[in-house]
Amino acid sequence: MEDVLQGALENDDVVRVEVVAPSGAVLASVRQNEGDSGDTFHIVVTDDDTYTTSIPVLSEGEQIARVRLELSLAELRAQVARAKGLVAIVSLAVFAMGIVAAMAISAHLTRPLRAVAGAASRIAQGDLDSRAEASTEDEVGQMARSFNHMVDRLQTAHVEVASAKSQLEQVLDNIPADVVLYDPEGRFLYANSAA
Q1: Spatial distance between the Cα atoms of 65 and 57, rounded to a whole number of angstroms
Q2: Cβ 1 vs Cβ 65: under 8 Å
């Protein structure tokens, strides 16, 4: 029986194997030996460090003993710790790749919007020949085309206002009376030839 039990100890995770009679008396027991000293050591363990299981030994359907096996959880804990470290590294790598992908996608998606914003800025500075790039058929492309149409209308209105102003100045210059225009704050705006 001790040879069989000793064979069970060939597994490094097995700490102790006992055969226990139904009365609770230990019939045979073996424990792991410590290193080079050859002394049998008695492990003092907590429930967190070992796992104990008990298996009945039956003969003709009647329990004649129980085999109690105590396994060390140290290697399992070490493997779990390594797995946690690996999961943490993989999670961090996936997170970093996700951020890089999100930034790339964002840059790709916002490029047409930045182009429209740039065209709007140039137009606001007086460049009525500037247009937004409308290279896509999505909402941004539709917005750029609408923006360009609005600028075309603004440019046409600007030309019409300049023409109307020129015509008005010609009419006012041909009037023999003095004509002077001021804004509501009293600043001088225009005077015809007679004035």
Answers
A1: 5
A2: no
- Residue 86: is its pLDDT beyond 80? yes
pLDDT 10s digits, 174-194: 888 999 989 999 999 889 888
**47 backbone dihedrals φ, ψ, rounded to 5°:** -60, -25
- At residue 69, the 3 state secondary structure works out as strand
Rounded alpha-carbon distances, angstroms, from residue 111 to 97, 105, 133, 134: 21, 10, 10, 12
- N- to C-terminal Cα separation, the chain: 131
- Residue 76's contacts (CB-CB under 8 Å, 6 or more residues apart) are 13
Pairing of strands 50-59, 180-182: unpaired
> What is the number of H-type helices and E-type strands within the chain?
3, 6
Long-range contacts of 42-51 (CB under 8 A, 24+ apart): 43/15, 43/16, 45/15, 45/70, 45/72, 48/73, 49/73, 49/74, 50/15
